[in-house]
Design a protein that fits this description.
With 281 residues, the chain is an alpha+beta fold. Helix content is 56%, strand content 18%. The protein contains 8 helices and 8 strands, in the order ααααββββαββαββαα. The termini are far apart.
Length: 281
């Protein structure tokens, strides 16, 4: 067998190694993804299984190159690959930063698919986390795609991290009303609303003396999802208003006093005098 035939044979074996490695990586991903998903999250299972698959193919490519060209040592190939990676990193800095941030987000899991979060000025439900971006569905039905680098570097408010969420409402009553009775009525009305949790129980605190009302801060806990929070808030407002009306307790509204300037008063008087003169005439 001459030299050319040996080279062709090595190249063929190298290609075969890469093809077999690719098949193995696909099978590994199919087996690994559902198992990781069952233990962690769908995003975690999908991304980690892909990284494992890419790792298998990468090792096979290095082995195939060194097999096809014996003069290329694995150490030299890895060193050259490192220099190439540095150049590639400078050229695609934004893309690689998103990739790295995506891997860190999926490993750390500060939030999961289905969580409701607020990040980078956007609030919504997490539809999915890929290596490059995080996809949100906002509460008004829009899709927002946030680069993972922005997500990772921003403060993230996970609205559904815990099993309950507190809402605070300001309720004003009249200065002449009995504050103890008003507090009891507000709390009793709040407790009777479906969706308000009994533990922690609702609380009402005086927080200020307004221009026309004594203000209570009503605090209660509900399911953390936005739809439940807004629904219960509506019901609590309505229940408190109806109970205060039924008990004869006042819910004052702002009163504004308009004082006319002297020039306006004088002008109105002249106008009235002119009208009176015309009528007399």
């Amino acid at each position: 067998m001459d030299l050319a035939e040996n080279d062709l044979l090595r190249i063929g074996v190298g290609l075969g190694v890469v093809i077999v490695a690719y098949i193995v990586s696909r099978v590994t991903r199919r087996v690994l993804e559902p198992r990781l998903t069952a233990r962690q999250t769908p995003s975690f299972g999908r991304v980690v299984s892909r990284l494992v698959g890419w790792g298998i193919v990468s090792v096979a490519v290095i082995f195939a190159v060194t097999l096809a060209s014996p003069s290329v040592k694995p150490v030299d190939f890895i060193a050259g690959l490192g220099v190439f990676s540095i150049a590639l990193g400078f050229a695609f800095q934004d893309i690689l930063s998103n990739l790295l941030a995506g891997v860190l987000l999926i490993i750390r899991q500060p939030f999961q698919q289905g969580d409701q979060i607020e990040v980078n000025g956007f609030t919504g439900t997490v539809e999915g986390i890929t290596i490059r971006e995080t996809t949100l569905k906002t509460f008004d039905g829009q899709r927002v795609i946030v680069p993972n680098a922005d997500v990772y570097q921003s403060a993230i408010q996970v609205l559904t991290a815990f099993g309950e969420r507190r809402t605070s409402l300001e309720i004003g009553v009249g200065y002449d009303d009995d504050l103890g009775v008003a507090e009891d009525v507000i709390l009793d009305a709040c407790r009777g609303v479906e969706g308000v949790l009994a533990d922690p129980e609702p609380q009402a605190y005086l927080i200020g003396l307004g221009d026309n009302a004594v203000v209570f801060d009503l605090r209660y806990w509900t399911d953390p999802h936005q739809a439940d929070v807004r629904r219960v808030e509506h019901l609590v407002f309505r229940a408190v208003k109806e109970r205060l009306d039924a008990e004869g307790l006042d819910m004052p509204f702002p009163v504004r006093t308009i004082e006319a300037a002297p020039s306006l008063v004088a002008a109105l008087r002249r106008e009235l005098d002119d009208v009176s003169t015309d009528e007399d005439g």
